[in-house]
Amino acid sequence: MNIATRLRRIGLPRLIVHASVLFIVLLWLLPTLGILVSSLRDKDQIVVSGWWTAFSSSNQTQALRLGDPSTQTQQGDRFVIAGNVFGEGKSGHVSAYGVRVQEPAAFKAGTSADLGDGETLQLNEDGSYQYSKNASFEGSRAKRVYVVVSTPPIFTLDNYRTVLLSEGIGQSFVNSLTVAIPATIIPILIAAFAAYALSWMRFSGRSLMIALVVGLIVVPLQMSLIPLLQLYNSIGNIFGIPSKTYAGIWLAHTAFGLPLAIYLLRNYISGLPKEIIESARVDGASDFEIFVKIVLPLSFPALASFAIFQFLWTWNDLLVAMVFLGTQKDELVLTGALNALLGSRGGNWEILTASAFVTIIVPLCVFFALQRYLVRGLLAGSVKGG
Fold first, then answer.
1. Which of the four pLDDT bands, split at 50, 70 and 90, describes residue 385?
2. Is the predicted pLDDT of residue 343 greater than 70, yes or no?
3. Where does the record place the ABC transmembrane type-1 domain (predicted)?
4. 269 vs 299: CA distance, rounded Å
5. Contacts of the segment 132-138: beta carbons below 8 A, 24+ positions apart
6. Strand partners, 144
7. Quick one: which of 20, 186, 225, 317 has the fewest CB in 10 Å?
8. What phi, psi does 123 have (nearest 5°)?
9. Do residues 380 and 76 make contact, with C-beta atoms less than 8 angstroms apart?
10. Phi, psi for 112 (deg, rounded to 5)
């Protein structure tokens, strides 16, 4: 079966959809790929060329000085200074050179340049040069030349070593994990219990509670943040609890994540087959046993789909972390540390790109580990209802 026949069997609409999805995926992957490549490049090469040129040689213009006049030798009626612009033990590839900053590539490497007043200069590709003059160089300064150096691509892990060991990102990484993991597990556990109760247990005020949960979904975080902080501080003053603790930020993320978690899980759990629940009750199972042994295993797609979103929200959060945890260096989460780097190291792109990739690597791992449950859990939680 040739390609044309396969395309006809797929159909033009489906082909357009597949092509569009592929284009969107590639468009989203490009920034991530750029951050990854830049984070592994040498800092000097990041400044002079884009990440898409990382696998080819790059040209850099360097201002260097020729040998000291005291090293001159006389050859016939001319005085000569010879050497290598890269210095002893160093090497490079020169593509062009010049003696004026306005024309750093005026002469091709390997050619002899007439500088006037009886001066000539020949600079070769390996950096060796011969600078001659029809008079002595004594009393003059070492001549400055501008060299266009072609350097091969350089990749290094030094950027990550600097970020993790010297910039405080390592501690912030641990802080983010300490915040995100409990702030993901706690609301899921509470929401799962609440969702089962609102789905399969009969009690007065159940419909009102469901309506209240739905209404809380639309409450903006920014509107409730300050009242929640004041309430937390008031309770902390009564019981002598410090205001800046991990417990505070866990409770804050739990409060903001619970309404959506209960809504999604309740819709999913209420759509489970009624016969399974009734059969378990006939066999004498309690509500807790039904929840643990039947409902939780069957609800794993919904639990996993919400866990992805909750983890991403808490991992990428900056506002709640700054309010409930603080802004000291040892208190900053990863987003806060990266924000501080943007202010203090804004010109060090190798530091920023390495920090950014450290920030996104954990959410990527979580997403790819649970993504097969994402669509199934969200569709069931959004469509089914009871």
1. very low
2. no
3. 173-370
4. 7
5. 132/75, 132/78, 132/79, 132/80, 132/81, 133/78, 133/79, 134/77, 134/78, 134/79, 135/79, 136/72, 136/79, 137/69, 137/72, 137/79, 137/81, 138/69, 138/72
6. 65
7. 20
8. -120, 120
9. no
10. -95, 130
CA gap 155, 42 in Å, rounded:
6
pTM: 0.70
Which residue, chain included where needed, has tokens 């509670």? 209
Residue 6 confidence (pLDDT)? 64
Q: Which two tokens stand for residue 146?
A: 């501008």
Asked whether 217 and 263 are in contact (CB, 8 A), the reply is yes
Say how far apart CA 136 and CA 326 lie, in whole Å.
68
HEC per residue, the chain: CCHHHHHHHHCHHHHHHHHHHHHHHHHHHHHHHHHHHHHCECHHHHHHCCHHHCCCCEEEEEEEECCCHHHCEEECCEEEEEEECCCCCCCCEEEEEECECCECCCEECCCEEEEECCEEEEECCCCEEEEEECCCCCCCCCCEEEEEEEECCCECCHHHHHHHHHCCHHHHHHHHHHHHHHHHHHHHHHHHHHHHHHHHCCCCCHHHHHHHHHHHHCCCHHHHHHHHHHHHHHHHHHHCCCCCCHHHHHHHHHHHHHHHHHHHHHHHHHCCCHHHHHHHHHCCCCHHHHHHHHHHHHCHHHHHHHHHHHHHHHHCCCHHHHHHCCCCCCCCCHHHHHHHHHHHCCCCHHHHHHHHHHHHHHHHHHHHHHHHHHHHHHHHHHHCCC
pLDDT at res. 381: 45
Give the max Cα distance, the chain: 115
What is the per-residue pLDDT across 105-145, written as a single tens digit (0 to 9) for each?
Answer: 889 988 899 888 888 999 998 888 989 988 888 878 888 88
Determine the average pLDDT of the residues in 44-54: 80
